[in-house]
Inverse folding.
């Protein structure tokens, strides 16, 4: 399926099923690749592997079958391109349950369909099951997180009110619980989402349940902080600043995006209120943490430039080479005022609620957003801003 | 004659000679009176023409030639005869003149001869006179010579007599002084002593004189002692005192010491006054304390508020009625004025009389006493006034009850008025201006107090409104409204014991307005015509514009807006503590302020205070836009809060149910009825304060609209049983077509100031939540059917509240569509069955 568009214009890809799950392929740093998992109760669900050819502005698509059930969440191994996890619904005996499993993509998928687009009616290949994350006792899986930057052997799963740390065997064919914790409290507590911090040697985890955000130490499996009422209503998603270890962003049903310094949780460092409905997803850019992407059920995607609380509050710092050019340059850099936070762009290509946004792992200036109606949109950071950040 | 002279001159003489001759000629003419009179005119154009026979430059040769050339023979003949005639007449004239001259010469010779004779006679008489004078001089000299001796003797005798008299005076002096002392004729004694003093001093080397001098000294010392005593007593009349001072000064008593003595004496009395005042200050404060007390309950209940009891102000004690021995500020100031200020004035006046305004004479003038004395007086007055002022300031600071301003203003007026006396007595003194400064400061402080009193009044009123809203009632919420068709008929609430929203609003707004008015009236006292300080520049300008208008009225309005905005910020996220009705009420209040109240209040202020704005002041429009912003924010927040309340109900109802294993729907779920009820009561509530608003025309059968799980074209595509990845453009095309017909819906968008817009906002938020929650669940057959029933029920009742019913259709379509899509066994319910169930409910 080829869609040729003008340079810098959004590239739109439509799936024939509804979809909520979107992820970039973490271990893939050359090709721009996103995975989309579908939601269908009646047909076999699919994982669409979307390759974006940046030079030609072309999308190449491959489809893998995921017959186990409709996909609510996906995660890709940071070490092995072909390994991924999904959280999926199964229905048996009029009972709906959300399970999680580790899968391997069949080796041949890449040589498969996209060479002959017309041939796509060929039966797609199915994912190869590596192991289940057996959690029947713990309730419905909300998400499975891979250890960031890790060797693809450690996972965390959030199910209802349980946090579980899993070890994968070398072949990834067996997962064993290494430790777990349970969130206790009044009422029926349920994790909505979580994020494994890439800082502190990957020993910390943040979770969202109801309106609260909690931090966990994975060594002791104990809570290290709790932002009560982080959002006025349900907190939907969160993300760690990749460059500032104590900073995280959260979003929720109060239409707000909040930025926190977990060392002082009384008040958010910054609050954005640009969306007109619930914000479902927030993502820091992997390299330039001033770029923050949010997706909302108001069908909009917003790219913000949160430069004042980023790791580069004075803009891009000059390299060593530049410094040696002359003292004047250096002083100019130093005297710069902190830049203003701003909304860079609001993307209106979606017509249904946007439940997921992701930056590409290969190209830091490129991101994808997925709306419920199965529309995937690939956009770029505006060129002017890109050059301003780089130069 | 002219002609002759002219001819000779021009022909023979050089130019200068001609000029001289002509001057002589002119003088002759003058002498003979043949003056310019006649000729002046003719002579003036004294022509240079050599042919003018009368001109000075006449050239006979040229003239002759000219005649010869120009004239005919007859003309020449005529000319010739005419000229002969003229010559002849000139000759006879000359003869007459010569004769006349001769006669005059003869008579002059006669006169001179007669004068010579007269002079001779006069010379003889002068000689005789000088001889007589010499004789007289001689006689006079002789007489003086004889009288010389006697004259010297008389002079000598007279000198001796004078000396003797002086000596006698000196010898008698001690006795005389003693007598004066006895008679208390101090003035006489002093003047006598003064007369003798220098002489005694001069001859003090002679024993007799020395004795006298010593005696006198002793006596005078005694006298001075008496005078000092008298001065110290001070009881004597001002005139006596003045005399006393005068005499002491003449006795070389140092003036500085006198001044100091006088002042220290006065100080002790004035200190007593001040201590009296201070003691008054130290009395325990009245029981009501210095807290801000608004004594307006009586005024409030008198306000014309319709209906129910509106007395929001809890009964407060009047600080002025509370039993206490402490005098009020007017009494205090009165006492200060009557005791301290008037005594001070007396002191100043008598001091000036004594030391400054006395006519200076003699050697005293050189000592420059007035300057020294007035310097002392100023320091004295300043130090005392400073103490007095600090007492007054302390007393004014205690004046915190803002109930009655007139007492304070009258006190300040009296305080200020009495200080004017000092300014009259002491023209250069800084005291009156310091006093004015205190008044200004008090006025400034007063404005601040009134502002904070207004603010706390406002907050108290809000608390009361909050309580009134929290009080259980049947009418406002409409919670008892049946879910049938009579939903809209229940808007006639408010007849119950508790006040309804509009009543609360009108009484709140009326009481605020009354409060502002009464505060303005109180503050206005400062500028009343009969108040002395009202014509000071501060009270004419800055007090009105910066003080009352900006510092009080504008600040208060801004405070209302700001505190209203705070309700949105604090209450929003952390568990909405503000009741929604209060948000709605405040929003309407702010909107009313924007439309009319602000401009009314400011016009009132400007009129009352005749504000002349030298410094730019906050314009009405800026305040209005601030109020509108606050109103908008409050209303948006109201929508958000109400939407959230309904959303939470819907969310819970979707999240907690097992939709796969539910039973076949027989009823509309209770939560949907609750949603409709709540929406209805919100509609009533908003309708009480806001106008209806515009809505699009309804279709005739809005409530009967059919929902089909397959009605959405998009869903049909998705149901197509095909694996073929259809070209992405196909779905896009369909969505785009869909987009053509429905605009993007902003769920949390700003609302307009009308009921329909508010309700639309709330319903949008609720239904969108419903949709998102449905999408997160999985449904069985009956689950879907229940959603169908619920949505139909919502459709039946919600369409009438919104501006565009298509919005409700669209969102409900989406909900049913999503539910169908998330259904394991999508077998929709018959439309007729749905209708029966809903109707029965």
């Amino acid at each position: 399926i080829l869609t040729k568009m003008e340079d810098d214009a959004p590239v739109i890809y439509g799936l024939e099923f509804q979809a909520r799950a979107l992820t970039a392929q973490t271990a893939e740093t050359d090709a721009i690749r996103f995975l989309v998992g579908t939601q269908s109760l009646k047909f076999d669900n699919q994982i669409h592997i979307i390759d974006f050819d940046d030079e030609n502005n072309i999308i190449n698509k491959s489809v893998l079958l995921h017959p186990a059930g409709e996909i609510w969440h996906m995660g890709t191994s940071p070490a092995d391109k072909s390994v991924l996890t999904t959280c999926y619904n199964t229905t048996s005996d009029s009972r709906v349950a959300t399970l999680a499993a580790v899968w391997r993509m069949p080796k041949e998928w890449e040589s498969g369909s996209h060479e002959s687009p017309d041939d796509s009616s060929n039966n797609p290949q199915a994912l190869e099951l590596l192991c289940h994350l057996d959690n029947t006792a713990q309730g419905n899986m909300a998400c499975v997180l891979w250890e960031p930057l890790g060797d693809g052997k450690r996972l965390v799963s959030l199910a209802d009110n349980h946090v579980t740390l899993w070890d994968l065997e070398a072949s990834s064919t067996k997962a064993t619980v290494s430790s777990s914790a349970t969130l206790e409290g009044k009422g029926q507590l349920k994790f909505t989402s979580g994020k494994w911090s890439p800082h502190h040697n990957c020993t910390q985890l943040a979770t969202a349940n109801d309106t609260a955000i909690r931090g966990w130490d994975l060594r002791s499996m104990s809570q290290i902080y709790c932002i009560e009422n982080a959002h006025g209503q349900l907190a939907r998603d969160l993300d760690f600043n990749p460059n500032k270890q104590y900073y995280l962003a959260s979003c929720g049903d109060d239409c707000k995006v909040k930025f926190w310094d977990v060392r002082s949780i009384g008040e958010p460092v910054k609050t954005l209120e640009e969306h007109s409905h619930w914000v479902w997803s927030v993502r820091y850019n992997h390299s330039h943490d001033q770029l923050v992407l949010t997706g909302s059920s108001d069908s909009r995607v917003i790219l913000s430039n949160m430069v004042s609380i980023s790791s580069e509050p004075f803009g891009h710092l000059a390299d060593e080479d530049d410094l040696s050019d002359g003292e004047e340059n250096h002083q100019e850099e130093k005297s710069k005022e902190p830049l203003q936070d701003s909304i860079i762009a609001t993307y209106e290509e979606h017509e249904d609620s946007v439940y997921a946004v992701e930056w590409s792992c290969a190209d830091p200036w490129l991101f994808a957003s997925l709306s419920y109606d199965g529309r995937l949109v690939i956009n770029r950071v505006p060129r002017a801003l890109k050059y301003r950040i780089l130069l | 004659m002219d002609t002759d002279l002219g001819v000779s001159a021009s022909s023979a003489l050089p130019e200068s000679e001609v000029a001289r001759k002509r001057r002589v000629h002119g003088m002759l003419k003058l002498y003979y009176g043949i003056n310019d009179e006649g000729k002046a005119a003719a002579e003036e154009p004294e022509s240079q023409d050599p042919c003018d026979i009368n001109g000075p430059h006449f050239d006979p040769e040229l003239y002759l030639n000219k005649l010869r050339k120009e004239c005919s023979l007859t003309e020449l003949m005529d000319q010739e005869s005419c000229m002969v005639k003229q010559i002849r007449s000139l000759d006879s004239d000359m003869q007459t003149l010569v004769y006349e001259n001769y006669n005059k010469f003869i008579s002059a010779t006669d006169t001179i001869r007669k004068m010579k004779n007269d002079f001779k006679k006069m010379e003889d008489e002068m000689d005789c006179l000088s001889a007589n004078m010499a004789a007289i001089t001689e006689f006079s000299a002789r007489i003086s010579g004889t009288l010389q001796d006697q004259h010297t003797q008389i002079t000598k005798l007279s000198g001796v007599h004078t000396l003797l008299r002086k000596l006698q005076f000196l010898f008698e002096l001690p006795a005389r002084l003693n007598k004066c002392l006895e008679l208390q004729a101090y003035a006489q004694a002093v003047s006598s002593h003064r007369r003798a003093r220098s002489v005694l001093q001069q001859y003090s080397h002679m024993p007799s004189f020395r004795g006298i001098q010593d005696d006198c000294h002793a006596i005078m010392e005694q006298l001075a002692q008496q005078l000092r005593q008298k001065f110290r007593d001070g009881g004597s009349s001002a005139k006596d005192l003045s005399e006393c001072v005068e005499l002491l000064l003449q006795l070389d008593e140092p003036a500085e010491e006198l001044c100091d003595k006088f002042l220290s004496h006065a100080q002790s009395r004035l200190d007593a006054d001040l201590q009296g005042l201070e003691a008054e200050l130290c009395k325990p404060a009245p029981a009501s304390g210095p807290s801000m007390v608004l004594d307006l309950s009586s005024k409030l209940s008198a306000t014309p508020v319709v209906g129910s009891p509106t007395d929001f102000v809890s009964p407060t004690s009047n600080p002025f009625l509370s039993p206490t021995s402490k005098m009020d500020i007017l009494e205090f100031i009165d006492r200060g004025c009557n005791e301290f200020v008037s005594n001070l004035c007396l002191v100043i006046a008598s001091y000036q009389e004594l030391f400054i305004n006395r006519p200076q004479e003699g050697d005293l003038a050189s000592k420059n006493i007035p300057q020294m004395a007035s310097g002392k007086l100023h320091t004295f007055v300043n130090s005392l006034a400073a103490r007095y002022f600090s007492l007054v300031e302390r007393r004014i600071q205690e004046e915190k009850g803002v109930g009655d301003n007139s007492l304070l203003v009258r006190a300040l007026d009296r305080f200020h008025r009495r200080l004017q006396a000092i300014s009259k007595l002491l023209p250069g003194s800084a005291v009156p201006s310091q006093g004015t400064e205190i008044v200004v400061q008090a006025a400034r402080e007063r404005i601040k107090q009134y502002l904070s009193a207004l603010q706390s009044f406002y907050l108290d009123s809000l608390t009361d409104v909050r309580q009134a809203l929290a009080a259980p009632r049947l009418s406002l919420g409409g919670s008892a409204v049946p879910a049938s068709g009579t939903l809209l008929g229940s808007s006639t609430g408010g007849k119950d014991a508790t006040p309804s929203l509009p009543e609360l609003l009108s009484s709140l707004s009326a009481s605020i307005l009354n409060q502002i008015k009464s505060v303005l009236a109180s503050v206005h006292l400062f500028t009343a015509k009969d108040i002395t300080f009202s014509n000071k520049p501060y009270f004419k300008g800055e007090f009105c514009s910066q003080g009352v208008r900006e510092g009080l009225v504008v600040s208060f309005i801004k405070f209302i807006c700001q505190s209203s905005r705070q309700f949105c910020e604090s209450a929003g996220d952390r568990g909405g503590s503000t009741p929604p009705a209060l948000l709605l009420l405040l929003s309407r209040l702010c909107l009313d302020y924007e439309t009319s109240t602000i401009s009314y209040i400011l016009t009132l202020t400007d009129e009352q205070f005749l504000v002349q704005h030298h410094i730019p002041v906050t314009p009405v429009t800026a305040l209005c836009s601030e109020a509108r912003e606050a109103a908008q924010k409050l209303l948006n927040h109201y929508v958000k809060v109400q939407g959230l309340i309904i959303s939470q109900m819907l969310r819970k109802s979707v999240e907690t149910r097992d939709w796969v294993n539910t039973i076949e729907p027989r009823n509309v779920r209770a939560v949907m009825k609750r949603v409709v009820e709540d929406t209805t009561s919100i509609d009533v509530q908003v309708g009480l304060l806001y106008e209806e608003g515009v809505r699009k025309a309804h279709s005739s059968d809005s409530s009967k609209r059919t929902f089909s799980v397959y009605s959405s074209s998009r869903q049909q595509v998705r149901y197509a049983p095909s694996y073929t990845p259809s070209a992405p453009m196909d779905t896009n095309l369909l969505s785009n077509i869909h987009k053509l017909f429905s605009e993007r819906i902003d769920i949390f968008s700003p609302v307009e100031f009308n009921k329909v817009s508010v309700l639309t906002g709330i319903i949008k938020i609720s239904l969108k939540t419903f949709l998102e929650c449905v999408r997160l669940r999985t449904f069985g057959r009956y689950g879907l059917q229940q959603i169908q029933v619920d949505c139909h029920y919502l459709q039946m009742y919600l369409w009438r509240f919104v501006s565009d019913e298509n919005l409700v259709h669209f969102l409900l379509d989406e909900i049913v569509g999503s539910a169908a899509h998330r259904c394991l066994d999508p077998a929709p319910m018959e439309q007729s069955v749905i209708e029966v169930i809903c109707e029965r409910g």
